[in-house]
Design goal:
3-stranded mixed sheet; single chain; about 350 residues; 8 helices; 15 strands; globular
Length: about 350
C-alpha cells in the first residue's frame, strides 16, 4: 500500500486549524502546507480554486465559500471513514493494467458489489494513487433514499447495483492531493453492455446532495447530459478502477489475495506538527489486503507452445488472457510461450512476481 498517500488523506483535516481562523486577514496556520499539498479537480467552479489557497475563502478572503468549521468536520469524518473501512491495495504499475479488450471480454459475467459496507480501495498507477472510498448506503442505512437525477450517462434507466463513491487522487510527481468531497452514486447496468467503449459499460451516475455539490459545474448539453468533461472523466476513473477491482476479486487466476498485517482499523486523533513526507512515511501502515497481479507466473516445460500460429511467428511470451467458453462462462488461459525461435525473439517487459 502507498502509505504516504493514505497517511496524508487520513491526517489532512489537521491542516485546517480552527484556532487560527477569525477576522484576521492574515493567512491561517498551515496555509502554506495546504497550498502545497492540496489542489482541486477542474470540474469545480473556477472561483473555488482561489479558495483552497488560503484556504476556504475566495481570492479576496471576503466571501466564505466553505466555512473552516465545515471543512474541518468533513475531512475529519472522511479520516474516520477511511481509517475504519476495510482496505484493499492493487499495484498496476508497469504492464499490470488490464487492457480494454480484456475488461470487455468479462463484463457480461461480472457482478458489481461492495465487499464491505465501507470499502477503501487504493489503486496505484505509474503516475498517481487513486484512493476510492466506496459506501453501500443501502446496507449502511435501511432508510437511505437517494435524490437521484438520472440525466448523466444514459437516457434509458435500468435497475442495477448502486454504490456511492468518493475519489481523491494523489499525484506522485507533485506530491499533491486532488481533493473532491463529492459523493458519486453509480448504478451499474450489468445486463446492458451495448455501450461498451474502451472497456467501459452501461451505468448511470449522479452527484449526491452536499455542500460540495454546490461547487460543481453541473451544466448540461442539449441532450441533458453533463457537459463538464472533467466531471465525466472523474467518474469514469471510478468506474474503470472499480470494474478492474471486481475482475481481480472474481478471478484468483490473475490476482492473488495477500493479507498484510498492520494497524487495526481504529481511528484516533494523533496531533501532527510536521507535515513533511518524512513524517508521513514513519507512520505505521494499516492492515489491508493486497491483490497481487499475476498475469505471467506459470511454470512450463518445453520452449514453445504449439497453437497452429507458431510456425511463422517469432518466439514470444503471452500473458494470461480471458477466453469465453461455449457455455458462456469465462476462463483465463494460462500464460505461455508461442512461436519459433527460428523466426526471431520478441522481448516484453512484463513485471514478473518473484514470490
Amino acid at each position: 500500500m502507498h502509505n504516504i498517500a493514505l497517511q496524508k488523506l487520513v491526517h489532512l483535516y489537521q491542516l485546517v486549524d480552527l484556532d487560527s481562523f477569525g477576522n484576521s486577514k492574515l493567512p491561517p496556520k498551515y496555509a502554506k502546507e495546504w497550498e502545497e499539498q492540496v489542489s482541486l479537480p477542474n470540474h469545480l467552479y473556477d472561483k473555488v480554486k482561489g479558495a483552497m489557497r488560503n484556504p476556504l475563502y475566495d481570492e479576496e478572503r471576503d466571501n466564505v465559500i466553505i466555512t473552516p468549521t465545515f471543512m474541518r468536520g468533513y475531512l475529519e469524518n472522511l479520516s474516520k471513514s477511511v481509517t475504519q473501512a476495510q482496505k484493499f491495495y492493487i499495484d498496476v504499475r508497469g504492464n499490470n493494467m488490464l487492457s480494454y479488450k480484456e475488461i470487455s471480454a468479462v463484463l457480461h459475467d461480472l457482478d458489481f458489489y461492495c465487499p464491505y459496507p465501507e470499502t477503501f480501495l487504493q489503486f496505484e498507477t505509474d503516475d498517481a494513487v487513486f484512493q476510492i472510498l466506496a459506501l453501500d448506503l443501502e446496507e449502511l442505512d435501511e432508510n437511505y433514499k437517494s435524490n437521484a437525477v438520472y440525466s448523466d450517462t444514459e437516457k434509458k434507466i435500468m435497475d442495477g447495483k448502486k454504490i456511492t463513491f468518493m475519489l481523491n487522487l494523489y499525484d506522485k510527481a507533485r506530491k499533491q492531493f486532488v481533493l473532491d468531497g463529492n459523493c458519486y452514486t453509480l448504478e451499474f447496468r450489468k445486463d446492458d453492455v451495448s455501450s461498451i467503449q474502451e472497456g467501459s459499460h452501461g451505468y448511470t451516475y449522479w452527484v449526491e446532495d452536499s455542500e460540495w455539490k454546490n461547487l460543481v459545474d453541473l451544466s448540461t448539453d442539449s441532450d441533458n447530459q453533463y457537459s463538464n468533461q472533467s466531471l465525466n472523466t472523474w467518474v469514469q476513473y471510478i468506474d474503470l478502477y472499480w470494474t478492474m477491482f471486481m475482475i481481480y476479486l472474481k478471478y484468483p487466476q490473475i490476482a492473488k489475495p495477500k493479507s498484510v498485517n498492520g494497524r487495526k482499523p481504529i481511528w484516533h486523533h494523533i496531533p501532527m506538527r510536521n507535515f513533511k513526507n518524512s513524517a508521513y512515511r514513519e507512520k505505521p501502515q494499516y492492515e489491508h489486503k493486497e491483490l497481487v497481479i499475476s498475469m505471467y507466473d506459470n511454470d512450463y516445460t518445453g520452449e514453445s507452445n504449439t497453437t497452429g500460429r507458431s510456425g511463422s511467428t517469432r518466439f514470444h511470451s503471452v500473458r494470461k488472457h480471458p477466453r469465453q467458453l461455449p457455455n458462456g462462462k469465462v476462463t483465463w488461459v494460462k500464460a505461455h510461450f508461442r512461436g519459433s525461435k527460428d523466426e526471431g525473439v520478441i522481448f516484453k517487459d512484463y513485471k514478473v512476481p518473484t514470490s
